[in-house]
Amino acid sequence: MNTLTKHFLKETSQKNIIRQNEIKNLNSAKNSLWINVGIYIVITIIEYWLSIIGNSQALRADAFNNLSGVISTVILIIGLFEATNIDDDDFVGKPLSKKYGRSKNTLQLSRFRLETVFTLITSFVIILIALQIIVQGGVGLFHLKGKTSPNLLSAAGAGMATLLMIIVWYLNHHNGKKLHSTSLLAAAKDSFGDVITSLGTMVTVLLSYSLGLPWLDSVVSIAIGIFILWSGLMIFQECTLNLADYVDPTLEHSIKEAVLKIPDVHDVLELRSRYNGNIFIVDMFILIDPNKTTIDIYDLDEQIENKLREKFNVFDTTITVVPDIK
């Protein structure tokens, strides 16, 4: 077995390990999200029921907020299922040719991007529900006549929701960091917003009850809606940038500087990077001595790939060499 064959076997083995670890992490993220769904459903039912009994528009807004959590989390689970369904014979409903087309390993990289696509869809759900809450709160401000302040049952419901959402936020944040999962980290942002809104709802209900200010309930429901809208827009922005192959320019500059420090690289003519889900990929054109042999170029490629993998966690680096002819 020659050196080149050994290299390709080693590289393929490394990529397969990374790919399988990513699939394992996505499956773990999917299991965590099922816990989210269960807790969100319980909170939504309790809050909506108590909002009717307790006459609180802010608590009803929080219940709809948590309903958005149920919907968006189910959408994420569907996305993760598609991203990890390596044995499926179709891609989002389109049949795959077993004889032609991309290899199974290359296609899996495209599947990883589905995590981002479905996270983007959840941002639309969050934004739509936020707008509904804002509109309902605004309408409530113009119909204050005869409206009574919410009672303490609403405050109790918001308090229970706050405690449960702290648990959800911790699980999402901890597991998202551990698994490097964009979907769980997005869910963590959403659930942290839910903690704030539930806590704010509880404080609002208590103040409205104590001071006899029914308008405060509507004002805070609008504030909750605006906060949810902001969270949805941030998730939308992050996913859109990811799908548009946007990578932090500072990171790309650091990668370029690291490659330029390698003595045989005269210049980096072009560098493009992108994410497929959580997988980081880099393409570059480098300028080198035209008298380099094929073996020299091969060794240089290996040096660059290993450096970027170790320093920047780059899954795959595609290098095109250009002779420096003066």
UniProtKB/TrEMBL annotation:
<comment type="similarity">
    <text>Belongs to the cation diffusion facilitator (CDF) transporter (TC 2.A.4) family.</text>
</comment>
<dbReference type="InterPro" id="IPR058533">
    <property type="entry name" value="Cation_efflux_TM"/>
</dbReference>
<feature type="domain" description="Cation efflux protein transmembrane">
    <location>
        <begin position="113"/>
        <end position="243"/>
    </location>
</feature>
<dbReference type="Pfam" id="PF01545">
    <property type="entry name" value="Cation_efflux"/>
</dbReference>
<feature type="transmembrane region" description="Helical">
    <location>
        <begin position="63"/>
        <end position="81"/>
    </location>
</feature>
<feature type="transmembrane region" description="Helical">
    <location>
        <begin position="33"/>
        <end position="51"/>
    </location>
</feature>
<feature type="domain" description="Cation efflux protein cytoplasmic">
    <location>
        <begin position="249"/>
        <end position="321"/>
    </location>
</feature>
<protein>
    <submittedName>
        <fullName>Cation diffusion facilitator family transporter</fullName>
    </submittedName>
</protein>
<dbReference type="InterPro" id="IPR027470">
    <property type="entry name" value="Cation_efflux_CTD"/>
</dbReference>
<keyword id="KW-0813">Transport</keyword>
<dbReference type="InterPro" id="IPR036837">
    <property type="entry name" value="Cation_efflux_CTD_sf"/>
</dbReference>
<keyword id="KW-0812">Transmembrane</keyword>
<dbReference type="Pfam" id="PF16916">
    <property type="entry name" value="ZT_dimer"/>
</dbReference>
<keyword id="KW-1133">Transmembrane helix</keyword>
<feature type="transmembrane region" description="Helical">
    <location>
        <begin position="117"/>
        <end position="139"/>
    </location>
</feature>
<dbReference type="InterPro" id="IPR027469">
    <property type="entry name" value="Cation_efflux_TMD_sf"/>
</dbReference>
<feature type="transmembrane region" description="Helical">
    <location>
        <begin position="151"/>
        <end position="171"/>
    </location>
</feature>
<feature type="transmembrane region" description="Helical">
    <location>
        <begin position="218"/>
        <end position="236"/>
    </location>
</feature>
<dbReference type="InterPro" id="IPR050291">
    <property type="entry name" value="CDF_Transporter"/>
</dbReference>
<dbReference type="InterPro" id="IPR002524">
    <property type="entry name" value="Cation_efflux"/>
</dbReference>
<keyword id="KW-0472">Membrane</keyword>
